Amino acid sequence: MKVCFINPAFPESLWSFSGVASLVGKRGAFAPLGLATIAACTPTKFNIEICDEEIEPINFETDAEIIALTAFNVQARRAFKIAEEFRRRRKLVAMGGPYASLCPEKCMPYVDVVLEGEGELIWQEFLADYKEGNYKRHYKQKEKISMLSSPPPRYDLLKIKEYFEFSIQTTRGCPFTCEFCDIIITDGRVPRSKSVKQVLAEVQKLYELGVGSVVFTDANFIGSPKYTKELLEELIRFGKENNFPMSFACEATINLATKYDILGLMQAANFDRVFVGVESPRKTSLVETKKLVNTRGSLLENIRKIQSYGMIVVAGMIVGFDSDDKEIFQEQFDFLMEAGVPFTTVGTLVALENTPLYERVKKEGRLIESIYEDMRGHGASNTNFIPRQMTLEELINGYNWLIRALYAYDNYSKRILTMIDNFYRNGNKDKVAEKRPYLPGFLHTQKKPYLSSELYKIIKNVLSYYLITKDGKRRWFFISSLLKTLRGGVNSRRLAGTLSLLVLHKHFHDYVTKAHGDPEIISPISPYTPN
To answer: Among 230, 381, 440, 530, who pairs with 399 as Cys (CB 3.0-4.6 Å)?
Structure first.
């Protein structure tokens, strides 16, 4: 018997990174961790293949008896179309993952089997029932599973060289209660962790497969500080034993800035990037959505503190809270410029089904019927409820100005340079870590990175794109950003940070131009800013 796991293609967004494929020679941003994990739960009697539509077309003529789909909210519509094609061919189609767990009833009409909740146990239950010829339409994992029993993902089934980065999940669950977030619905509010030994085994496996960049996908990497420190100490040991072959990234709450011991360990372990859900510079909006952790202390100073340890801060930002009026767009722009945050996944607020926000706006009669494929969240101007202090048209127009202004060449370059100036402020420099030859993210390669033919090819592509062009603004953006970075002295982490953000900007600029309009004709002053 054979199972074909399928990850449907994502719609274009800031997160898709499709625009840099031609520069770095990789087609996928993030390898599908969920499918690799469930593949590891599949009995050996089943043959397995994983198809990621992000990097390859789907073979609808596969000889697999079972088609297993996963989907985030934004992938749901594509997943349903794929299911339709396979059911037409009389294949049994099962669907699990975040969307099926959040909205199982909406998946039922399109597939044969819905798996709701964490999949490690109910997937095996379904397969056992299937072998007996007596499977159910709906499987639900009622109790949260122990992460100690979650097997190491089958990374070996993935096309390693096609991805920018690979993921490891150490913990599920988040203790916070942000009104808009679906993680507390699907993963629960009580954090559950793998053992440090389990995590290191996964790191070791990715190292053996030649992976140079790993993202920890936990909702909050510092949810359990004691556990985080134990893990970081082991990552440092692993790095020392293997000449620091990997760079790491994670998602954390802004109070990371107050945990100097963890920041120091992250720097020593080779962390180069942290995603922080900042959401808004407006305190009333943060209080409204119950993001209270962001109201303690200065957001600007906290971002600068994290940057001072040589780490890029990627900020998740949202417009469209009930406390937001038309002036929020300029406030967001000014805040991000001052903070030196080049990469921000700013988007309009969306009420995801079954979240507290969804239930509230539905009760208030403000919900707008819409299609989830169009609600891309970060990096999109779509919403599904009526704003309180502006019209829907004003929200969309204000957002379109904001995203274009942020990714205009000059404004993006200014934020890079502000970030670089914040690196190692107040002397937060690990002198040993600083001397390492360093390349972040998808530019990081193992074993003599500066002699890598792959790296030389990337550099050649980047130079060709930015320098051999009739677009003088693009050329000057690249040259001036590098020159201003070098004025602070030759420093591998600063230079690599600038280079990686310049590579990513190709995608940001291409996407924003296509989806929202030319960034280069936008004023840095919002059309809604009072005269």
So the answer is: 381
The tally of domains found in the chain comes to 2
pLDDT digits 0-9 by tens, 31-85: 999 999 999 999 999 999 999 999 999 999 999 999 999 999 889 999 999 999 9
Q: How far apart are CA 507 and CA 484, in angstroms?
A: 22
DSSP string, 29-88: EE--HHHHHHHHTS-TTSEEEEEETTTS---TT---SEEEEE--GGGHHHHHHHHHHHHH
Query: What CATH number is attached to the domain comprising 55?
Result: 3.40.50.280
- Same domain? 105 vs 203: no
CA distance 96 to 123: 9
Per-residue DSSP letter, 378? B
- Do 172 and 126 fall into the same domain? no
Alpha-carbon distance 340 to 503, whole Å?
A: 17
pLDDT digits (tens, 9 = 90+) for 296-346: 999 999 999 999 999 999 999 999 999 999 999 999 999 999 999 999 999
- Does the pTM surpass 0.85? The reply is yes
Whether residues 312 and 199 fall in one domain: yes
- For strands 92-96 and 213-216, give the pairing: unpaired
Say what the pLDDT of residue 1 is: 92
- Which domain range does residue 9 map to? 2-140
Average pLDDT of every residue of the chain: 91
> Which CATH number does the domain housing residue 189 bear?
3.80.30.20
CB atoms under 10 Å from CB of 418, counted, come to 18
**Which runs of E-coded beta strand occur in 76-159?**
92-96, 113-116, 138-140
Number of CB atoms found within 10 A of residue 64's CB:
21
Q: Does residue 20 lie in a domain region?
A: yes
* Residue 112 CA to its chain's centroid (Å): 30
Q: Is 339 helix (H, G, I), strand (E, B) or coil?
A: helix
The total of other beta-carbon atoms located within 10 Å of residue 175's CB is 15
Picking from 26, 30, 25, the residue whose alpha carbon sits closest to that of residue 10 is 30
In this structure, what DSSP letter does residue 313 have? E
Same domain, 109 and 217: no
Where among 399, 418, 437 does a domain terminate?
418
Listed in sequence order, the DSSP H helices in 289-436 are 299-307, 328-339, 356-363, 392-406, 409-422, 431-434
Statement to judge: residues 124 and 247 lie in one domain: no
337, 414 Cβ separation under 8 angstroms: yes
End-to-end CA distance of the chain: 69
Task: Give buried/exposed letters for 71-101 (b at 16+ CB in 10 A, else e).
Answer: bbbbbbbbbbebbeebeeeebbbbbbbbbbb
Q: Are residues 256 and 112 in the same domain?
A: no
Report the candidate in 16, 379, 399, 441 with the shortest Cα–Cα distance to residue 215. 441
Residue 414 inside a domain? The answer is: yes
Looking at the structure, do residues 296 and 396 belong to the same domain, yes or no?
A: yes
Question: From CA 349, how far away is CA 279, in angstroms rounded?
Answer: 10
